[in-house]
Write a structure and sequence with these properties.
single chain, about 80 residues, mainly beta, SH3 type barrels, 6-stranded antiparallel sheet, about 35% strand
Amino acid sequence: MKEAIRTPGTKVKISSKSAHHAGQTGRVDADYDYIVQIKADDEKHKNAYRSRVGKNDKGVDPKSFKMGKYFMAYPSHIIQVAE
């Protein structure tokens, strides 16, 4: 059974164990078992990236196909935030 923090849409914060993303907040976007993709709340976070996932069948620029910026974090570095 998966933990609640891995459910897409869950609000999370990254603990200080993470060297690159400590203190960042966001929402879980996808769970890849060993790592979790998170959509960053702060789009100025220098270690976040724009998504290039998806098909470009609608004439959309592939660099901005999924809106926002994302980063990856280990499940052990994630803390669930109450809303």
